[in-house]
Amino acid sequence: MKLKALVAAFAALFALQSGVVSAATNTSRTSAQASAAAKKTAAKPAAKQKAAAKPASRAAAQKAATKPAARKAAAKKQAAVRSKAAPVRVALRKAAPAAVAVAPASLLANEPDEALAVDAGGLPVLGSSAFYVFNQKTGEVLLERNGSAVLPIASITKLMTAMVVLDSGQSLSEPLVINEGDIDRLKGTGSRLSLGTTLTREDMLHLALMSSENRAASALARNYPGGEGAFVEAMNVKARLLGLWNTRFHDGTGLNPANVSSPRDLAKLVAASASYPLIREFSTSPERYVDINGRTLRFGNTNSLVRSPEWAISVSKTGYISEAGRCLVMQTWLHQEPVVMVLMDSNGRYTRTADAKRVRKWLEQNATQRVAVARQDVGG
Predict the structure, then answer these.
(1) How far apart are CA 40 and CA 42, in angstroms?
(2) In terms of CATH, what superfamily is 131-348?
(3) 322 assigned to active site
(4) What ranges make up the beta strands (E) of the chain?
């Protein structure tokens, strides 16, 4: 009995140990499976996120790759719009006819003398990119290049400013005061007419035409009935009445490059200006002394040709802003006949006056040749 009981006890103990080991093994397997399942579950979202990230990165790469192309396309589009919107001085010069190799216009840009060279057609070589010369008495066009090109006109604007002021009938003795509204905030140009300077309307008109004083021109427009807006509107109405169809004004000074015209239109403007005695007088005055705030200041004419005894000039006006280049318009008398010269878009300091001298020399030579031919016809 004792032996049977001992064997049973050992058997029970062995069974108990086996159960414990089996349970531990099962527990270990269950934990491993749970851990593996958890890892697998955690890996799925990560894989999904990675898969979702790939298209995004590709899209970003494609977008980054298309940026330079888009920028280039936009730049081309903007350039095309600019070229259509307004004339460019450089483009105009490229489009101008090439000069004869003997004396290209580029070499004349800073030439103070009036050395005359002619092209293959016998026409004078000029440094101005656009010009128009005609006999006001006969209407004959004597010289022309880019006569219909619409370009910024700078201070040539002041001829129209003067006509509108004189047409208004406002008192020329009325005192006008330079104030903050007359300061050039567009181009930053200076002036000797300091804030608070008081001059008559006549003096302002004189300085605007002779010395191209921007603050004087601004004061004239600002003191027009209805203000500067009404003044600019009157300028454009006057342009239409004169048949200046390529001409637009946006201010009375010419500092705004949106003030544009063509050489042909400016020739009409000069001819119309010549009918105003004060414009003839003020625009051709060599100099004027003005008392400003207790000091006497000398103002000179921006066109040096008015001081030359060789010239008989009735109307004169110069102009310059970077967009317009250097411009000069005149009515002068040659062989007792009025000749209007319009010289636009010159890039040298002396080009416009030197071109005027070249045109005059060419006209004189041409007139001499015509007289000689006429005499031969009569004698033959």
Answers:
(1) 5
(2) DD-peptidase/beta-lactamase superfamily (3.40.710.10)
(3) no
(4) 130-135, 141-145, 151-152, 175-177, 198-200, 260-261, 287-292, 295-300, 313-321, 325-334, 337-346
Catalytic entry in 158, 238, 317, 357: 158
Burial per residue of 225-257, b for 16 or more beta-carbon CB atoms within 10 angstroms, e otherwise: eeebeebbebbbebbeebebebbbbbbbbbbbb
Catalytic status, residue 155: yes
- Is residue 285 annotated as part of the catalytic site, yes or no? no
pLDDT band for position 44 (cuts 50, 70, 90): very low
Q: Which pLDDT value is given to residue 347?
A: 82
Note the pLDDT tens digit of each residue in 344-378. Answer: 999 888 899 999 999 999 999 887 665 444 444 44
Choose the catalytic residue: 155, 211, 283, 285.
155
pLDDT, one tens digit per residue, over 7-20 is 455 555 444 444 44
- pLDDT tens column, 179-200: 999 999 999 999 999 999 999 9
In the chain, where the domains are located: 131-348
| Residue of 128, 129, 211, 212 marked catalytic | 212
